[in-house]
Design goal:
mainly alpha; 2 domains; two-stranded antiparallel sheet; 4 helices; 2 strands; 4% strand
């Protein structure tokens, strides 16, 4: 089911991009900021005769369409940067969590063999890595 939705989403994005690109020259052109600028006739329609929505028409008449589009693009860019930063942080936490699991398995192995000094050294390493990973929320394991 998720594969079908993924394909439908990709098809929808492709259709929207195709619809936007085919309107070049008849509904929009590249403006002064490199943003699309609608081509509006005097009667409030696109040059090809299709009806224009009220919001776009108001922005075109105010002369602010490109600026609003550029601001929206900047907001999307900031959101994308925030999203990528958070994904990188999640991956970092997962990798550190895996390291912590490996160290804890080594501690248990040393404890089973009766090597208490090595186990305590590994626990110190575990606590140090956990403090780096989880910060003030970390509570040390009981020894």
């Amino acid at each position: 089911m998720s594969r079908i939705l993924e394909l439908l989403g990709g098809a929808l994005v492709a259709a929207l991009v195709w619809h936007f690109v085919t309107g070049y020259g008849s509904q929009w052109e590249v403006g002064r900021y490199g943003m699309p600028r609608p081509l509006v006739a005097a009667d409030g329609r696109y040059l090809d005769g299709t009806k224009i929505d009220d919001v776009t028409l108001a922005l075109v008449r105010a002369g602010k369409h490109e600026e609003v589009f550029l601001a929206g693009l900047c907001v999307c860019g900031l959101f994308l940067a925030w999203y990528v930063f958070n994904v990188v942080q999640i991956i970092r936490l997962q990798r550190r969590g895996e390291k912590l699991n490996v160290i804890m398995a080594m501690v248990r192995e040393k404890q089973d063999k009766g090597q208490w000094q090595e186990a305590n050294q590994l626990l110190d390493r575990y606590d140090q890595l956990a403090r780096q990973t989880y910060g003030k929320h970390w509570k040390p394991k009981c020894r």
